[in-house]
Amino acid sequence: MLRASSGRYCLTPKGEFYLIGYGSRYESRRKPAQGVHDDIFARVVLLEVDGTEIYMFNADYLEFEEWSCDEIKGMMAREYGLNENCIFFSATHDHHSVMDYHKHWNTGVFSQEYYDFYVETVKRAYEECHASLEKCRMYFGRGMAEGYYGSRIFYGENADNEVILAECRNADGKVVAALCNWATHSTVLDPENTLLTADYAGAVCNELYRLRGYYPAMIVGAAGDCSNRAWRQGTDYAELERLASGVAKKINEISCDTPLDLHFEGERLVKYRVNYIPEDHTGEILAEIARLQQEMERAEGAQEKKLLYDEANSLKRKLDLSEVDICLYSSIIRLGDLELVSSPGELGSALGIELKQYSKARCCMICGYTNGYKSYILQPELMEHSARCRASKYRPCDVRGYIDAIKAGM
Predict the structure, then answer these.
(1) pLDDT on residue 26
(2) Maximum CA extent, the chain
(3) Spatial contact of 349 and 377, defined as CB atoms under 8 Å apart
(4) pLDDT computed for residue 307 by the predictor
(5) Where does the source fall among the domains of life (predicted)?
(6) Would you say the C-alpha torsion 67, 271, 164, 351 has a positive or negative sign?
(7) I want to staple 143 with a disulfide (CB 3.0 to 4.6 A). Which of 97, 222, 254, 308 is the partner?
(8) Is the pTM above the cut of 0.90?
(9) Which residues lie below 8 Å from residue 208, measured CB to CB, with a gap of 6+?
(10) What does each C-alpha distance from 403 to 12, 347, 397, 399 come to in angstroms?
(11) Are 370 and 89 in contact (CB under 8 A)?
């Protein structure tokens, strides 16, 4: 039996705050934000399947820190009896969100007051959703959202452009909770934007409310190599509105008419350790950095310069590696016709497609940027095409090992 509920909770800070995303090289991130363009929110979905609750806190944040997720999940388990593996802290990867909840961000800006507000919101949202659970049936549909985002490496090509929409409807046919599973970076605006905003995911969510009458949780899937970079015609709020309106209309064409038979089959936490001493490729890395810097000097547009800088900077970080020791993980929840698979990383689109196709469930959702952040985990096939892929801490064997470990747990 399925019971479900949902809620929408404002996460906009009061008083002075800083923006997160893009790093301290931008003045917009070194100084307090200049205001609020639009509020940021958490869209909370609570599913109860055969007595087991799955709590999804989907927020307009850049990411969630692992230590914070573990701390709050432990508290939720103690106070409410939740299974820690059935709690998903899902970020939309908003690069114009608030920094102040993020204790270990490189600028060192952290507000205990805001962090406490965030934790209290997590608790209040659960309590209110738990109190309003009602018997439901889940229906889903899938479609392709093309023409507004796609591969950020092979311009003009799709990445994972499939969108999955799931609705929980009560006995009266009312949608009481919904999930929108798409796979793209939630980024349209320029890094020098100085206003708080929910950016792409938030704008699409607002458009879906206008079109369908509800705010779905915007669950970002395997979006490591996917964005609107090749499709956008600018980086201002007018372009954000154009892109959001266009893709929301595509999503609205999806018919949620396939019922899902949900029953709790089990959950599993998969862990995969990446541990090695990097080989010395200093000469090759320095040569590539020099090439990128030369291209930067010739570049004319700010966006082109930014992309080249990002690639060079990611390679520079690789020069400082003496040992790599990372624990990757994934929470896998099997609910009969629905399977939820989380990852704390920016999975490559081909990896997300592979996992969805491997799943035995009728509907499989990949939940990226969830319960922590472990950077880019891209398909090895991109190695020769992407400096960011070459700069990754994860070797091809690590990526393959992690994906195989997830598949073994599905």
Answers:
(1) 85
(2) 66
(3) no
(4) 73
(5) Bacteria
(6) positive
(7) 254
(8) yes
(9) 180, 214, 215, 216, 248, 251, 252
(10) 36, 10, 10, 6
(11) yes
